[in-house]
Amino acid sequence: MKINQQTTENTLTLSLDGELDASSSVLLDSELTKPEVLDYKKVLIDCQRLNYISSAGLGVFISHLQRFQDAGVKLVFFNMQEKVHNVFEILGLDALMTIVPSEADATAL
């Protein structure tokens, strides 16, 4: 998996490309663990090219939820493919996490 970063003054956007599995989740976790991530008001996760997510990948996001909430950072997913969105829905994670259809919707939050 490849992770591309884009930043603005208040927003960090991570574009995920490929499969988020046990091995690649370590890379994502190291990105989200960086202290400077908490300097942003929003962390947007672009899932347009995310083809697959494993329980390890989901675990990375879940493990950072409270830390982001405590710091006042919004975590927002957008451009999620249907098969990936179904995994979030089946596990009830769509109730815990903010998932919107487009980047415009994500930046509007």
UniProtKB/TrEMBL annotation:
Stretches assigned to the STAS domain: 1-109
InterPro entries, per the entry: STAS_dom, STAS_dom_sf
CDD domains cross-referenced by the UniProt entry: STAS_anti-anti-sigma_factors
Protein name: Anti-sigma factor antagonist
Domain of life according to the entry: Bacteria
A GO term for molecular function: anti-sigma factor antagonist activity
Taxonomic lineage: Bacteria, Pseudomonadati, Bacteroidota, Cytophagia, Cytophagales
Pfam families for the chain: STAS
